[in-house]
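--- STAGE predict ---
source: upstream dedup step, 1 unique chain passed
mode: sequence only
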Amino acid sequence: MDTREALISLLLMASLIALVASCRQVANRSARWNVTFFLELTGTFQICAITHELCLLGNLMPKPQVALFLTYVFTVLHGWTLTGSIANPASSFQQFYKGRLGVQTWCLQTSAQFTAALLAHICMKLIWMLGITSEHTRALPETCGNPIQTTVVNAFGLEFLFSFLLHLTLLQFESMNPRLKVHLIALLITSFVYTGGNLTGAIFNPALAFSLHISCFAEQFWNYVAVYWVAPCIGSVLVTVIWDEVLPGLRREV
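--- STAGE serialize ---
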């Protein structure tokens, strides 16, 4: 991908963020919308759509510095623009386990997240069909890119670990200034991508994994469910178990 095509991709991603922001503003002003569903729908859509396009920029030189820099920048932008959205089924499941979400709200959030994941996949394919860049044309075929470049057990462990560390950090710094916290989380996610991106993609978000690798789920369903759905959810819940149940029990014994 040359500089001109890279700039086109960046412009496309900026346009998507602006469009989502406008839709969220309209929804927040209208009492007719189910705000919970719409915030999750738009938030997850933005993350999935942007990540689809970011994956095409992974070969920009120098590697991997440019890709990591873009990962950091767009993670910060997500944090700034998607206030009020969870946009990760593993995080929603954690909130449900903690009792902060009722069954109906949890189902609503999760359905919105996976609906957005599918919509983002379809939307980006339609945009790529325009053939604006050569990378868009090459990305069109619906083939499994085999993101798991290690054993399923190792991949499960990595996605579990990334989800565990992410949710532990979010819990540890829950009261931190949001403007600082978004940079901390962005650095953490960027480090995950650097460490495990070549092995599993370092996704740790079930909806995002579904959006990026729908064809892989169709071909190797149970392997991908275990690695990209079950592992992140276990990681997020284990943080709650340790933080809210194990550690308080140890403190009482001491």
